[in-house]
Amino acid sequence: MLNQHTLEKLHSLRLTGMAEAFEQQMTQPAAQELAFEERLGLIVDQEILYRENRRLTRLLRAAKLRVNACVEDIDYRHPRGIDRSHMSTLISCQWVQRQQNLCITGPTGSGKTWLSCALGNQACRQGLSVRYFRLPRLFEQLRIAHGDGSYPRLMNQLARIDLLILDDWAIQKMVVTQRNDMMEVIEERHGLKATLIASQLPIDRWHDYIGEATLADAILDRLLHNAHRLPLKGDSMRKKQRKLD
């Protein structure tokens, strides 16, 4: 009866991890042989683990990553120009914490989206907020936001994200409103948050993609200053996967 009362108190205090650990200890005879300090330490550890897992679940759900990818599964054998030491630096996510940017470029099927999502997943695991967008979809959301009055709120949300992933950059040339919106997004984040760009188009052609010279200069200056670059090459990873299948 006393144990049940303790469990109810732990749940009322939202100490779910501790409650689960306490309940497990009550059903495990071996746990009864441990000293009080050891049992208490295990219960506290379980609460910490529970909160970390819950936070990770929340961050991954908010990130809306396009594919389920993790850095442990990166294929270094496929010849696409991935250097282990460079990837080790990126996997540490220090570039995100230092509010730097990353540009991943390469041909179709080279793994840009997969790597972007793997790095996004890694950032979530380190407690950082992440949001993935295909750039055409982001532009559509911004267009709608202009019309329904939610633009300031959306821009504020984009400005607060620790790592913003913009995939399918340069699928089609920007129009005037898109250039202006992109300038606002990049300006709000410049030097404050990290942005990851994934594109089929080489960086030296981004200026033409953006279009208007003055805005292109301003956007690229903010995006590329101190940015990490990961140019991929080689055959499509999808072709390799089909052969394995």
Written account of the structure:
The chain has a 5-stranded parallel β-sheet. The chain is α/β, with parallel strands linked by helices. It is built from 13 helices and 5 strands. The model has no long low-confidence stretch (mean pLDDT 87). The protein folds into 2 domains: 2-62, no CATH class; 65-244, 3-Layer(aba) Sandwich (Rossmann fold), CATH 3.40.50.300.
* Silhouette: elongated
Strand runs, count: 5
Number of domains: 2
Strand order of the largest sheet: 2-3-4-1-5
Total helical elements: 13
Mean pLDDT: 87
Low-confidence stretches: none
At CATH level 2, the architecture of the largest domain is 3-Layer(aba) Sandwich
Please identify the top-level CATH class of the largest domain. Alpha Beta
CATH-wise, what's the superfamily of the largest domain?
A: P-loop containing nucleotide triphosphate hydrolases
Largest sheet: 5 strands, parallel
Q: Give me the CATH fold name of the largest domain.
A: Rossmann fold
Order of helices and strands: HHHHHHEHEHHEHEHHEH
Specify Rg, calculated over alpha carbons: 23 Å
* Percent strand: 5-15%
Q: Note the gap between the termini.
A: 58 Å
Structure classification? alpha/beta
Structural topology:
Blueprint: H1 2-12, H2 16-27, H3 29-32, H4 36-63, H5 84-91, H6 94-97, E1 102-105, H7 112-125, E2 130-134, H8 135-148, H9 151-160, E3 163-169, H10 176-189, E4 194-199, H11 206-210, H12 213-224, E5 228-231, H13 237-244
Parallel strand pairs: 1-4, 1-5, 2-3, 3-4
Helix pairs in contact: 1-2, 2-4, 4-7, 9-10, 10-12
